[in-house]
Write a structure and sequence with these properties.
This protein is of the alpha/beta class. About 35% of the residues lie in helices and about 25% in strands. Strands 6-7-8-3-9-10 form a six-stranded mixed β-sheet, sandwiched between helices. A four-stranded antiparallel β-sheet has the order 2-1-4-5, covered by helices on one side. The longest helix is centred in the C-terminal third of the chain and has 18 residues. The radius of gyration is 18 Å and the shape is globular. The termini are far apart.
């Protein structure tokens, strides 16, 4: 499986410049790629284009040789807001996408429990959503996304609204889950630390030109630790580059 972005452009009406300009990027099966950059650089726009939620002004997005022209079951999106249904409990929220897809009930139950155990929520499966914490809601949303078994998981700053302690814990959970599943993930974040912690590669976007400023391969062994010397050095290097692009 490969996700190929070729010559991608996006220009919004009433905007003086292109939000994205000649973006070329290829993501291989099982790769974890993080997109970073200053506010307004087009990170979320890029994810929305890959998700098929917006149309490009130019260029193409290909998934396994098939052009992306709209939303599809081969791509699952997890946004900053969890998008859970308050009238459903935890496990029913996890099952929701499978129900829409017509998955048999027995398989729904099996897959929902499998991923609830993976995110350590099996003991909370019958809790109403309003009775669980923000971090647990995001873990519920992650379990729901994983049950769809899509080719690519698209994550748009899913932990940014959470407190630092909770977001750090969820980063650890996501790293562990990715190491177990080798899911192909495109992850949008404003946090360079988060990108270095999670990504195989970090793609820095330039807000000035709408282009890719650099692509950095993260060779630090997993599981990663934010206080290791190699982690701190690489985080500092990318932060300086992103800060320079923003200026």
């Amino acid at each position: 499986m490969s996700l190929v972005i070729k010559g991608l452009n996006k220009h919004f009406e009433n905007s003086g410049k292109a939000t994205l300009n000649e973006i070329d990027l290829e993501i291989e099966s099982g790769e974890f790629v993080c997109i970073v950059g200053a506010s307004g650089c087009g990170k979320s726009t890029l994810l929305n284009l890959v998700a098929g939620l917006e149309k490009p002004t130019g260029g193409k997005i290909m998934l396994d040789g098939v052009e992306v022209n709209g939303p599809g079951a081969d791509r699952t999106v997890m946004f900053q807001e969890h998008g859970l249904f308050p009238w459903l409990n935890v496990i029913e929220n996890v099952k929701f996408g499978m129900k829409l897809a017509g998955v048999p009930k027995e398989e729904q139950e099996k897959k929902a429990m499998h991923y609830l155990e993976m995110v350590h929520l099996q003991d909370y499966k019958d809790y109403p959503i309003h009775q669980v914490s923000g971090g647990m809601r995001q873990r519920t949303a992650l379990a729901r996304a994983l049950t769809m078994d899509s080719k690519v998981l698209l994550m748009d700053e899913p932990f940014s609204a959470l407190d630092k302690q909770t977001s750090n814990r969820l980063r650890e959970e996501l790293q562990r889950i990715w190491m177990e599943t080798k899911k192909t993930i495109l992850f949008i974040t404003h946090s360079v630390e988060e990108a270095v912690y999670l990504g195989d590669r970090v793609v820095a976007l330039s807000p000035d030109t709408g282009r890719i400023a650099s692509i950095i391969t993260i060779d630090i062994p997993r599981p990663r630790h934010v206080y290791s010397p190699e982690f701190v050095e690489l985080r500092h290097k990318i932060m300086e580059q992103v800060r320079g692009e923003a200026v």
